[in-house]
Structure formats: C-alpha cells, structure tokens
C-alpha cells in the first residue's frame, strides 16, 4: 500500500510537470499562428467592408481545375488574395452551418439551385443586382433581385461505357428493360445536388406517375451509388454499363482523356442543373466579393467555364467540345416546386432504393 | 507514514486530477455539451423532446441493431486474426522479425475508404481478379455481402487488438508458464488458467476499441456498405451532416444513441478489467521465453503470417498501386496501359500535392507529440481508476473515441468559433492540431494505462528505499516501464492523424490541404489514379518514418540490456 502511494506521488509529480509543460505548450506553440489571425478575424467582422484587407474567402463546389483557374484569373486581375475551400455542396453547407455564429466565407459557389434558393429564403445572401453582365444570364436560373447568379450549368444524361454498350438507350424508360438488368448506377440524390435536380425536375413534369420510372429502375437492379463521381467510376472500369442522371461535364472530360465513355440526352427531355454563386450577407469583404461575382460573369471567366465542358451561364457564350444548351432536349421544370419538394423526394427516393 | 508526506501527496494528487479534469472539460466536455444543446434547442426555443422525436421518427432500432451486430462480428473477426498472430510474435522466434509489425501498421495508415476501394476494385465485376481468372465471378458475388464487409473491417482493425495482446503476452513472460509446466500442467491447461486470465484485461480494452471503432466507422459503410445495402448509424448521421438540409440537432440526437451504446460497452469493459488486472511487472528480472518452431509448426506459423499480410496489405495495395499506375482506367490491366505520369504530377516541385504532404507530416508530428504528453499525464492520473474522479477522467478521455469523429469536430468548431471566445483558434493551424489531439487522445491514454496498471507498486517502493527521489524514480523506473505504451500511442496517433479525413474536411483553413483531403478531392474530381498515387506516396512515407522509429527503439533496448 505504501509503495502504491509512493508510486502515486512520483506519478503525480510527473503529471504536474507534464501538465504545466503541456499548458505552456498549448499556450505558446500555436500562439504565433493564433494571435495574428485572432486580430485580423475580429477587426474585419466589426469594421465590415474593409476591402483594404485584400482577401476573399471562397467556398466552391464543382470541378477543381475550373475553380483553380478562376481563382488565379481573379487574383491576377485584382490582386486580391483568394482563400478557397473546395468540396461538395453538402460539405460546404455543413461548413457554413458549423461556422454560423462566426462566419468566414464571402462567396459560395454551389452545384444545386434549390440550395441557393434556400440560402436566399433564410436571408443569408447579400443581393447584388448591379452585377455587370447579369442581364445576359439565363433568367430561369438566376435571381431577379441579384441574390444568386448561375454562372455555369451541367445537363444530366445517360452516361455509358462504349466497350459494353453499342446501342445506347434513347429514353429514360429503356433503363428499366431486362437488357440492362443490374447494369445501371444512379447517383444518390442526398449526396448529389444534380441528381436531386433531375429527380425532382422529372417529377415536377410527370407528377406522381413519375415514380413509376424510378420503381422500374429499382426492380431492374439499378444501384444507388454515392455522389456523381462514385456512380461514374464503376462505369469507367466496366463494373457497370451506365449511369442514369449522370453529370455531363464529367463524362465529357473523361472522354477527352480517352476513357471509353459517351453520353446521350434522351429525346423526351432532361434536366439542366445550374450552379449558382452567391455573396453571403455575413461577408467581411463585400467589395472583393462583388468584384469576384463581376469576374465570374466576365467574358474571361465564362470562357474558362466553357473549357471545363460546362454550359456557360451567360446565354451569349458558346459551349466548347460538348453539346450546346439549345441542342439538349429540356423538360419544362418547375423550380419552385422542386425547391419545396426536395427533402421529401430525396427521402422517398432513398426509401425506394434501400 | 509521516503526515507531511501524506499532505503533499494528496495535494499533488488533487492538483493533478483538477488539472486533468479542467483540460478534458475544455477540450472534450464543453464541445459535446454544445452539440447536445443544439439538439434540444433547435429553433431558438428549448425543446427537450426534439431528440426523442428524431429517434422515434426513424426506423432506428433496425439500423442500431445492424450497427451493433457489425461491431460484434468485427470484434470476433479481428480476434481470430489477432490472437494467433500475437502469440506467434510474442512467443516464437518469428517475433524477432520486427518489420512484420511495421507492415501490420499499414492497414491503419490506409484511410478506410481507400482500403475498401482496393477490395472493391479487386473483387468487382470486371475487376482485377476477374481479369486474371474469368472464372472467379462466383467468388465476387459471395464477397459482396455482409461477410465481405466484416472481413474488410476486421482486416483493417485487427492491428489494434494485436498490438495490445502482443504487449500483454510479452509482459506475462515465460516464468509463470514455466511454473505451470513444472507443476505438470499441459499446454491447453496453461493457456486456459494462466495466459487467458492475464490477457483478459488487455483483450477487453482492445475489443472495446475495435467495437467502438467499428460502429463509429464511416469509410467502409459509405463505400462497401452502400453497395451491398447494409446501412448503419454513421451513414444516417452523415446524411444529416453532409447533405441538405443540414441538421446538426438530428445528427447529434442519433449520435447520442451511439454514444450510449459505447458507454455501456465502456462500463462493461472497465468492470471486467478492474476484476482481472494483475501486477505483472515486478522487480524480478523478466525472461521471455521464445519457442523456436521447427518443421510443420514453424511452416504453419509462417504461412499464417504470410496469409494475413496478403489479405490485409497485399490485396488492397495491389489494387491501389495498380490503379495509381493506369493510363486509362477503362482499359484494364496490361503493360502498355501503365504510366508513371501520376507520380510525376504528384511529386513535381511546388505542386499542391507536395504541399499537402508536407502539411500532413507537420500536423501529425505536432499532434502526436502533444497527444502523447497529455495522454500520458491523463493515464497516470487515472491510474488504476479507483476513485470516482479517476473514473470520470477515464471516461472523458475515452469519449472522443466513442463519438463519431464528425460530431466531435462540429462541437469543437461550435466552441472555438463562438463569438464570445476571446481567442479565435478556428481557421488556424493550431485548431487542426487541437482537433487531432482531441480525436486521438484515447489511444495514448489506453496504451499508457495498459502498461501502467501492470506495474507493481513495490518497484517504486524499492526505488524509495534506496533513496531515490521522485525525479529519479520517474526517470529510471516509471518512464522506462511505460515507454513502450507511450511509443505505441505516439505511433498510433501519428499514423491515424496523417490520414484523418472527416475532421480535416471541416476544420482545415480554406486553401490548406492534407494528403487525405487531397486524395478525397481527387476522387470527387474523377482523378482516381492521382488520388491512389497520393495514397501510395503518403503511406510509403509513413512506413519509412515508422521504420526509422523502430530502428531507434530497438537500439535503445539493446543499450539498456
């Protein structure tokens, strides 16, 4: 017993020395890092639009190369330093939610229109109706009051492996045929904003009868497989033959690399999924944010969008190396219905595919 | 005993306990409380029933049972892998091949989703196996099942259990077994009556870690589980955290269910280990006996290790490396489809990927060092968890392991980014280190505790008798004895921190990447080959580092003896 206590004593001595060391460690090691940011974090948030700070925090979903190019183009043009967080729409929204009490981001670019509509409805966006070239944007995809601007878009189609599929299906219903049993992937609408846009868009046109399509998919062994890229990858490697509601720009860029891929847009119509950018109301660098939106809408940035195989948001800019928007058969979808019914549709879809 | 000593002793003990509690409450308790607050305070008004409604609104019981069943099966699976291996490595000549240990750490260094991806690429229709053996289609069908998931997860997690069991077996030493043999006990009887009871406390700890890791794991359920339609609690939680509409309240309600399961497990484990803890490290010299296995026994043991290495490292890494070398992923395995371009792109000077690698290295070095220092302190305070306060500290330092990482991280963000915080740590390098330390503190605590509880108090007494001051006792007795535990904790923290993904995705300052987030981004962007190349490079780097540590460590042992 005595030995035990002595043991305790020595360990406690160790403990206290260790603790004080570690306390100093905690206090001093990060201080070089943390003191400075603490200062410049507190100042801009109080003094608001101090554009002189010369930085912009961007949260961007979508192809990274494109975002990198846009950021370096913007930096070269304005000299503003851009800090970018790159992730999926879901990750960006989660990050914003976590930072709610002390936001850092100035501009977000999302891959789903309903999310931007929700941000606007929650009063989180800062309107910028004076944005240059905003009048040239596709009216259906952008906010009339300037809360969000869809600077690019992608269309959804049937992406197929050309080694495995010689005559691609021409209609959405074909994927329910026995010919394609167990050969089709569909992205998970809770992870892929564009897949959700397709499903809600299809339902907004077909009404409740539209569910028959997805039920026939399920009956035919279609697998719900993660976000867009996760659904596409097995098709590239040949484990699956096709993706239903696949994002077209991914297919075009993989095809350009030489992968055995191609895409068809069913003649009956499909959904185009716009990618909105918005300034946040909490933005500490409003002037830089506005300059960034102006840049996104400029000829230069729209050209970069086109080079990434996306559909440019401005109607006067042509797409490159891909089907133009006017040649894609599009459903007459109801965006406000889609925004209102997104959650329940995603839930019911997961229920069907579970 | 002199009362003066008593006083200073109790004073130091109290001080230590208070300090430990304070640090744990700040770093773990308050963030979790904030999360809980979010779940009962969703719409600016207090609503105690919100979490209960969330739980009731789900067909939760089924998913919860699936989580628990998976956990139980994975514990069984990893025991099957770990126990024979631990015996071979502790008791036979084969154990002198220390490199095996380093290779067995590779499953840890691999992000779980990469490991599962490797298996999927290998086994799927048109996968690497079928490209060699077209007749293997039947295997792949039976592989994509619950059994396959248990296999993948067991192969990923068994090293936890193995390390704990091996260390325990080494500490048991040969003397006790020899004593049994002298008294005429057969091998089976000796195992049952001597080894098993002595192993039980370490096994309980390891089994609990594996169980908790399994039910809090996200990577494999997200890749493999989704494919076979096996849903667990973490998939539900992630749904609320990573897809619109984000609802931390609901996520935390579900997380609290998971937390309760883990707490029940922890309670059971601590009861068992309190009953079965023995002082094994006494003053007498240790002589560990190593059997030299000859003939068929040796062959079987070597074969067993070989098979385990192939399954846990060989197959996944074959796929990962193959994928990283492919020009076109659609063209399959063939010599003219191989290229080193991805590595060239990855390692070109000044590239984003090199910076990411550097960040990973720096962050995990800092985090593992801080975690070892803190964790050792906590473990020594907890001691043999006799007092209530000690058990509270034990529980707190274990919490990060029982809460899904993402929940812990959200709590940390809520706390450190709160407007009333005087120091905004959020969005700095320090925040990342803090997160890693909090997330991985339990490893050091568990490992050091495991070695500390087995030290006999008479050793310190002896030191005292021979006039050693507290510092001398600390330096010459305590530290050398808990060093292996500290080292294991450091290695574990370093390895896991260098591949941490879920937290890093949320917590890294914008425009800063680590190797794990880089890999993940490449997957998201469709650059699978580039991502796989990064996995190979970062794991390779970690292996080299561990080999260096291992070499230094074995030299140290040699000097001491």
UniProtKB/TrEMBL annotation, chain A:
Residues annotated for Fe cation binding in this entry: 249
Q: Which of UniProt's keywords are assigned here? A: Iron, Metal-binding, Signal
Q: Name a GO CC annotation attached to this entry.
A: outer membrane-bounded periplasmic space
GO BP, one annotated term: thiamine transport
Q: Does the keyword Electron transport apply?
A: no
Any one Pfam family here would be SBP_bac_6
Highest rank taxon of the organism: Bacteria
InterPro entries linked: Ferric-bd (IPR026045)
What's an example of a GO molecular-function annotation for this chain? metal ion binding
Q: Note the coiled coil stretches, chain numbering.
A: none
- Range of residues in the leader sequence: 1-31
- Which Gene3D superfamilies does the entry mention? Periplasmic binding protein-like II
Q: What is the name of the protein in this document?
A: ABC transporter substrate-binding protein
What is the protein's species of origin?
Paenibacillus glucanolyticus
Identify the taxonomic lineage of the organism of origin: Bacteria, Bacillati, Bacillota, Bacilli, Bacillales
């Amino acid at each position: 017993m005595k030995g035990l206590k002595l043991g305790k004593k020595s360990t406690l001595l160790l403990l206290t020395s260790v603790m004080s060391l570690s306390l100093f460690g905690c206090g001093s090691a990060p201080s070089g890092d943390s003191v400075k940011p603490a200062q410049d974090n507190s100042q801009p948030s109080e003094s608001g639009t101090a554009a002189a700070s010369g930085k912009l925090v961007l949260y961007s979903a979508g192809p990274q190369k494109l975002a990198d190019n846009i950021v370096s183009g913007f930096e070269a043009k304005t000299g503003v330093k851009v800090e970018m967080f790159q992730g999926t729409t879901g990750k960006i929204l989660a990050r914003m939610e976590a930072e709610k009490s002390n936001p850092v981001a100035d501009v977000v670019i999302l891959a789903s229109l309903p999310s931007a509509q929700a941000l606007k409805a929650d009063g989180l966006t800062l309107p910028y109706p004076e944005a240059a070239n905003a009048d040239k944007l596709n009216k259906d995809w952008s906010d009339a009051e300037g809360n969000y601007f869809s600077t690019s878009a992608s269309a959804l189609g049937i992406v197929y492996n050309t080694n495995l599929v010689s005559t691609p299906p021409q209609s959405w219903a074909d994927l329910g045929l026995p010919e394609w049993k167990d050969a089709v992937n569909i992205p998970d609408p809770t992870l892929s904003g564009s897949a959700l846009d397709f499903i809600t868009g299809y339902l907004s046109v077909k009404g409740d009868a539209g569910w028959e399509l997805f039920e026939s998919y399920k009956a035919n062994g279609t697998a719900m497989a993660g976000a867009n890229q996760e659904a596409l990858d097995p098709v590239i490697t040949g484990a699956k033959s096709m993706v239903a509601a696949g994002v077209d720009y991914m297919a075009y860029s993989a095809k350009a690399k030489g992968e055995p891929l191609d895409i068809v847009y069913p003649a009956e119509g499909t959904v185009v999924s716009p990618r909105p950018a918005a300034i946040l109301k909490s933005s500490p660098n409003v002037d830089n944010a506005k300059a960034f939106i102006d840049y996104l809408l400029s000829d230069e940035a729209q050209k970069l969008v086109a080079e990434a195989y996306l559909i440019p948001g401005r109607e006067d800019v042509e797409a490159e190396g891909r089907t133009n928007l006017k040649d894609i058969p599009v459903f007459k979808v109801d965006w406000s219905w889609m925004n209102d019914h997104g959650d329940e549709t995603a839930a019911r879809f997961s229920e069907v595919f579970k | 005993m002199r009362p003066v000593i008593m006083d200073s002793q109790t004073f130091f003990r109290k001080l230590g306990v208070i300090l430990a509690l304070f640090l744990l409450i700040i770093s773990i308790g308050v963030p979790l409380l904030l999360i809980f607050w979010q779940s009962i305070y969703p719409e600016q008004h207090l609503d105690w029933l919100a979490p209960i409604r969330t739980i009731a609104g789900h067909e939760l019981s089924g998913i919860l049972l699936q989580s628990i069943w998976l956990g139980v099966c994975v514990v069984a699976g990893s025991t099957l892998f770990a126990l024979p291996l631990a015996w071979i490595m502790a008791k036979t000549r084969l154990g002198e091949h220390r490199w095996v240990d380093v290779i067995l750490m590779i499953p840890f260094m691999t992000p779980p989703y990469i490991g599962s991806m490797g298996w999927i690429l290998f086994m799927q229709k048109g996968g690497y196996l079928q490209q060699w053996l077209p007749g293997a289609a039947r295997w792949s069908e039976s592989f994509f099942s619950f059994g396959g998931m248990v296999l993948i997860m067991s192969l990923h997690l068994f090293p936890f259990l193995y390390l704990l069991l091996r260390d325990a077996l080494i500490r048991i030493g040969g003397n006790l077994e020899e004593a049994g043999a002298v008294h005429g006990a057969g091998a089976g009887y000796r195992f049952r009556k001597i080894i098993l009871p002595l192993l039980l406390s370490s096994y309980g700890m390891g089994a609990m870690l594996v169980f908790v890791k399994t039910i809090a794991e996200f990577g494999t359920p997200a890749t493999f589980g989704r494919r076979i339609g096996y849903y667990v609690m973490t998939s539900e939680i992630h749904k609320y955290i990573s897809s619109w509409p984000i609802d931390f309240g609901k996520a935390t309600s579900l997380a609290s269910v998971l937390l309760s399961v883990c707490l029940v497990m922890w309670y059971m484990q601590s009861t068992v280990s309190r009953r079965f803890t023995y002082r094994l490290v006494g003053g007498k010299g240790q002589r560990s006996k190593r059997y030299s296995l000859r003939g068929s026994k040796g062959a079987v043991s070597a074969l067993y290790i070989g098979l385990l290495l192939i399954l846990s490292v060989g197959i996944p890494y074959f796929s990962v490396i193959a994928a990283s070398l492919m020009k076109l992923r659609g063209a399959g395995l063939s010599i003219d489809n191989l290229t080193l371009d991805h590595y060239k792109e990855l390692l070109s000077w000044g590239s984003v990927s090199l910076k990411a690698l550097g960040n990973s290295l720096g962050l995990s070095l800092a985090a593992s060092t801080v975690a070892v220092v803190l964790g050792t302190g906590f473990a020594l305070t907890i001691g043999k968890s006799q007092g209530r306060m000690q058990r509270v500290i034990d529980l707190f330092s274990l919490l990060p392991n029982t809460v899904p990482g993402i929940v812990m991280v959200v709590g940390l963000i809520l706390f450190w980014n709160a407007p009333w915080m005087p120091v905004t740590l959020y969005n700095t390098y320090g925040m990342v280190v803090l997160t890693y330390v909090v997330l991985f503190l339990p490893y050091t605590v568990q490992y050091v505790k495991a070695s500390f509880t087995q030290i006999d108090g008479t050793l310190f007494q002896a030191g005292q008798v021979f006039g050693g001051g507290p510092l001398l006792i600390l330096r010459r007795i305590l530290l050398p004895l808990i060093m292996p535990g500290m080292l294991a904790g450091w290695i574990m923290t370093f390895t896991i921190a260098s591949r941490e993904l879920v937290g890093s995705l949320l917590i890294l300052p914008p425009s800063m990447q680590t190797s794990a987030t880089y890999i993940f981004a490449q997957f998201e962007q469709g650059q699978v080959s580039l991502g796989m190349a990064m996995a190979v490079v970062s794991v390779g780097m970690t292996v080299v580092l561990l080999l260096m540590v291992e070499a230094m460590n074995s030299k140290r042992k040699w000097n001491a003896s």
